[in-house]
Structures are given as structure tokens and as C-alpha cells.
Design a protein that fits this description.
single chain; Endonuclease, Chain A; alpha/beta; 21% strand; Rossmann fold
Amino acid sequence: MSYLTAKQFSERWGISERRIIKLCKEERISGARKTGMVWEIPEETMKPSDRRSNIYKYINTEKRIMIVNVKKEIKEYLIQLLEKEGYIVGCYNLNSVKNNEQDYYEGLIYFPINNIDKLEESFIEDFSKRLNSESSIVIVDYKKENRNKIEAKLANKLKNEIGLKINALILEINENSTNLINYSDIAEDIVNLLIKFKNTTGTTITTDGGKIEFNKKDRTEDLEIGRFYKAINNCFKRMNKESHLWCASTMLEDEWTESSQEMKFRQINLEAANIGVNVERIFIFSKDKIKEFKQNKTLKIYMQSNIKTLFVDYDEIKAKEPKLLEIVKDGWDGIDKNILVVDLPEESKARGYISRNTKEVLEAYNCFQKLKEYSKNLKEVLK
């Protein structure tokens, strides 16, 4: 795709460069991007309508989306993503939708109250009159054994009558679950069904929202590699600039591999530090390993980032406070004082587990604070 500058479009459209830049900032020019200090616009872009003209007032050009019965845990993420795509979002309960409203819409996201009954089916059909052939409806429902298939019937009917598409996202999670669910990913799936699948209708996609299930002891079962790293990713996605990531790693051998899973894990650490998360990592190994670890790629990467990297002498702790090593074991990553991601021994069939057991998390956190009393700046140790 070829791009032209705002100055070049100024000559083409006969309006000032300043006006075009303003339109770009208001996201009214599709595909416009800023490279450095320069706005670039796809060469084939059409001139946007003037909001002051009578034509603009007559033809609806606002992108409106209605969300009905949205689950509170998804709402914030969903609105944020839709607004980023340029939509005006309205959220209602089914009984509060204004039947006499005349606005046109680009789409509907509908969360059934139970199974879709005749009342809800009638609402969707009536609402479709505000839509057009480019519009989209997404039905979001929890997985239920007695779940009906009215959306499939609606998809076929409205495709023929209006040309719009209806797709469904089924949540394979318990509505009253106390497990960790990644609702930001669910919101992203909903938006993708809404705008990415241009010619697909009647499609049903099932997601578990990256759920992490905890037992009565408030920890997961031991997880194999794939499930373990997926769980880590979901835990880390919850962090923001107010979060604290505190980690301890025992490095008795050079166990840091170059596997794609480990590389992704390091990338997530770096991204967390870049968005302002307070990331502290303690590396525990013997002083006689310092020369060897000077060439360690992982340590080099972390030391060049915003991550606070610390060294603790394994032999000193073993002599003075061996109980700390018993708590660290093979290492762990803590998030605030809520979550502990625990590594299992290399000979174990599983890779690790996730805990939110208050006693276990606080024991690790207190251990981390105690280890910091023995720590030195890793950069100084390895320089």
C-alpha cells in the first residue's frame, strides 16, 4: 500500500494541511498513521465528509454499537476496544432499550439472559431494522447443556432479509466461577467476531477465556509446559503500572534455555517493565559461577532493561539462612501479594503451578524481602 503525506493530500483535496492533520488526530481519515512527526495517509483514501454540510447531516456516518445485558466483568474491556475502533458505544439492559430510538447502528452485541426466548428473539429481529447489510450481530452466551439454537435460525433469516451476519461466542466457563478468567481476551474475541469476519455468518466459537482453575487449597494442579506458560501469560496480562512483580531464580546450573516458550516469557517480563510495572528479579547462584554467568544471554537481556536485577550468593544463604532456600526451591514469580507462579524441579513431569493460597504467597513474599537484605546489584557483580 502506498502512502502520501498530509501536504500532498492538501493539494489533492483543496483543503489546508493543518485541517488534514486535525482530521487524522480525530481518527476521521481511515488508515492514517503517524510516522515520527509526519502523518501518512493511504493513497486511495477518499476525502471525509464535512460534518457541517447538509449531506453529512442527512446521511448517518457515525459508527454506533449497542451492547445489551453486558456482563460487568467484560464491559470495561469491551467498551475500550470498541472505542479504539472508532465506535460510539451504548450499553443497555433489555428492558431499558428505547424502542422509539431512531438511530442507525453498525452492530449489536447481545448477552442472552438465559437461553434466547421469544421476547429476546423478537428484540433482535426488531433491532435488525436499524442495521444494514454491512452490520454484524454477536451473541455471547455461557455454555449450557440445554442451550438452544435460535441464533442459527436468526443468522439464516437475517442474512437473507438484510444481508447482515450473526456469529456467536460461547464461554466455556462457569458463570459464578471464582477461577481466574482473562476477560480482556474474551472482549477481543467478541470484537474480532464483530468486525473481522466480513463474510461469515452462523459461526460459533467456543472459548475458556484462558481460565485458571484452583482447588480447595487455592492452587492449580501441577501444569505441563503448554498449560503452565499459558497460565503465566494470563496472570501477567493482569498487571499494570501499579503492579509489583517480584521473582527469585535459583541458577545452580545454566538452565536458561532458548526455547520459544522461555523467549516469550522473557519478552513478557520486558514488556511489563516497559509499561511501568515494578519488576524485581533476584538471581541466586554461587560466587564461583560469576565468570560463567557473565556471558549468560538471559542475564544480559534483563540487565539492559528496566528490570531491577539483583544477585544473592547461594553459598552465603546456605550458611546463614538455609530456610530461605527451602522456600525458594526451584524459583517462583510473585505478583503483588496475590499470585505465586511456582517452578517445579527439572525431573518433574510438570513444569509448575499457580497459587493464590494466602499463606504460601506471603511466605514467598517475606522470603523475597529477606533475600533482598543479602542482595547486590547484578550489574556490579557481573561487570
